[in-house]
């Protein structure tokens, strides 16, 4: 199986924050940020695998600092680790005050994608080779995250056994 460097899947997107992008605290809507990060992460996964990919999970989105209307937002994503058909994609979100030039890590995220074939079945992906210190740190800690993802998925499946699919108004009797 072919190998690829993290940098080969790197995607960078920069956008501005406008008044219609913010919540009642005058900071970027979390859902807007999540939309951008899913787009860049899915592009990284497709670039790495050169296959169709589906989002298997959004493992974490950690909001570290608010993003203001005076900021631009840079989304940087790349494949940080691979399994047989799955890819962990790291997304770093950098806010930059457009007047002062000050930059800060506003959020980070980890998502998992699975490459699929023409029959929508999981298909193998190239292994990934980290080069920078950041990439190496993410790569060396990824197997533990993958283990926790599998455990969490099993627990969610168990919980789903107890969840109903009835309409909420049909669950209660007067």
Write the layout of secondary structure elements.
Blueprint: E1 3-5, E2 11-16, H1 30-49, E3 52-63, E4 71-82, E5 86-97, E6 103-116, E7 127-129, H2 133-140, H3 142-160
Parallel strand pairs: 1-7
Antiparallel strand pairs: 2-4, 3-6, 4-5, 5-6
Task: Report what the structure shows.
The chain is α+β, with helices and mostly antiparallel strands. The protein has a single domain, classed as Hotdog Thioesterase (Thiol Ester Dehydrase, Chain A, Roll), CATH 3.10.129. It contains three helices and seven strands; from the N terminus they run E-E-H-E-E-E-E-E-H-H. It has a five-stranded antiparallel sheet with strand order 2-4-5-6-3, with helices on both faces. A two-stranded parallel sheet has the order 1-7. The protein is flat. The N and C termini lie far apart (62 Å). The mean pLDDT is 94.
Using the alpha-carbon principal axes, give the shape.
flat
Q: What value does the Rg take, in angstroms?
A: 19 Å
The CATH topology turns out to be: Thiol Ester Dehydrase, Chain A
Structural class: alpha+beta
The CATH architecture assignment turns out to be: Roll
Physical arrangement of strands within the biggest beta sheet = 2-4-5-6-3
- Please identify the oligomeric state: single chain
Report the CATH C-level class: Alpha Beta
Question: How many helices does DSSP assign?
Answer: 3
The biggest beta sheet reads:
5 strands, antiparallel
Give unreliable regions as ranges.
Answer: none
Instruction: Report the average pLDDT across residues.
Output: 94
What order do the helices and strands follow?
Answer: EEHEEEEEHH
Per DSSP E runs of 2 or more residues, the count of β-strands stands at 7
Amount of beta strand: 35-45%
Q: Summarize the amount of helix as a percent range.
A: 25-40%
Per CATH, the superfamily is Hotdog Thioesterase
Q: How many domains, in number, for the residues?
A: 1
Q: How far apart are the termini?
A: 62 Å
């Amino acid at each position: 199986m072919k190998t690829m460097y993290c940098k080969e899947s790197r995607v960078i997107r920069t956008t501005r924050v406008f008044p219609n992008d913010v919540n009642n605290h005058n900071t970027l809507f979390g859902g807007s940020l999540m939309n951008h990060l899913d787009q860049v992460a899915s592009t990284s996964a497709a670039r790495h695998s050169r296959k169709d990919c589906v989002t298997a999970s959004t493992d974490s989105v950690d909001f570290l600092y608010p993003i203001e209307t005076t900021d631009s937002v840079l989304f940087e994503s790349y494949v940080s680790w691979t399994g047989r058909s799955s890819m962990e994609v790291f997304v770093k979100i950098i806010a930059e005050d457009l007047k002062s030039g000050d930059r800060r890590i506003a959020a980070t995220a980890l998502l998992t994608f699975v490459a699929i074939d023409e029959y929508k079945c999981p298909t193998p992906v190239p292994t990934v080779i980290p080069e920078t210190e950041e990439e190496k740190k993410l790569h060396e800690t990824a197997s533990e995250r993958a283990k926790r993802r599998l455990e969490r998925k099993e627990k969610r499946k168990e919980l789903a056994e107890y969840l109903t699919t009835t309409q909420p108004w049909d669950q209660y009797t007067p």
